[in-house]
Amino acid sequence: MQxxxxxxxxxxxxxxxxxxxxxxxxxxxxxxxxxxxMPGAAPKAPKAPTPRAPPAASASASASASASAxxxxxxxxxxxxxxxxxxxxxxVEGMQNAAGKASKPPDxxxxxxxxxxxxxxxxxxxxxxxxxxxxxxxxxxxLSSYLKLHPVLSLESTSYETLQLVSNLVEGTSIPTxxxxxxxxxxxxxxxxxPNAEIGERPCNxxxxxxxxWMARWRxxxxxxxxxxxxxxxxxxxxxEFKKSGKLPHTNGKCLVCSRYVTTYIYRCARADPTFKPSxxxxxxxYGNSLGVEAGENVPTHSSVAIDSDxxxxxxxxxxxxxxxxxAAARGGMASLLWRPCVKFDTSHYTYVRxxxxxxxxxxxxxxxxxxxxASHFCQPAGTAQRPPLPASTPTPxxxxxxxx
Length: 405
Known about the structure:
- By secondary structure, the chain is mainly alpha-helical.
- Among the domains are: 137-173, no CATH class; 182-364, no CATH class.
- It contains 13 helices and six strands.
- It has helices at residues 4-21, 55-71, 89-94, 138-149, 153-157, 160-168, 170-173, 185-189, 211-220, 236-245, 256-272, 336-339, 373-376, and strands spanning 182-183, 281-286, 289-295, 303-304, 350-354, 360-364.
- It has a two-stranded parallel ribbon with strand order 1-4. A two-stranded antiparallel sheet has the order 2-3. Strands 5-6 form a two-stranded antiparallel sheet.
- The chain is elongated and about 100 Å long.
- The two termini are 70 Å apart.
């Protein structure tokens, strides 16, 4: 509820506006207009000058008014005008426009906010709005802000003419994408091993710089026998052609781990630099030794199955945020990352084991959507004794003794 001081300030502002309307600018050469008088109204008598109070008196009066307003913030209805408040009736009579209508300030401030039987304000708001959990991102926020600022113009945005113009722009503003082969997780597990030279498989084109070699050296030391060069990763269509005719791709490719590493590396370069060009060649080097050249438009090479029995978890996929969708790289050659799930590179997702022939290989852990949660999160603590298993049948409790009563 507005206080007495605020209501008196509004009346003073209205009176000052009416007085400013009768002022004549110093550079005006026209004859001032005569005030329009309502028909049947008595001529207005000249007002006597109002004596001005000294500054000290006015300051003390305003201080007492503010103190009384602070003392009773929840006062009742607005009282009748008293001698303490200035009379602006003459100023209200002068607030007449060309149409002959007078603008009168409100007699009382607006009423208080509605409250329930206990005197508390309503918990739910009466106006409609978008909550924080309903806002999906920057685009949703911009749309909700537009609807709040221009509620009438937003209706025009959904008209037939506007939607027709937007539909004509789809062909020029569409994001290009390319068709990728979908590879399930069991197929990936079959390529985390050394190449089989007896059937003609080729090793990773990174050679001794293969990630499978360096992960083993970082974990077990430089003289470990767990390091191996991964086999060349073939797409399902390429693998079917290789099994049918023995024909391999013209260019030697990377293994699955190195392919994921390069895809994650190029995506992070594009995410950190808004001016990244997918068509530009990126040299891949290690300690000055060239490992090849790669471009952003060549990634991703394939898509993976996500959140399915033979797919990957959401945590194992490459996270593509909404802000990256506004960059030129996301709307150009690397647009497939917006729509196709791709597995990211993370060294904690791989563990070294030996196959039945004694050769080292990699296993993926904690990335499959079908993995049990107990093996992923609730593992047995290290260094603690195992408890004996619980009995299959629970013992029957003894019957209660009969009461004496």
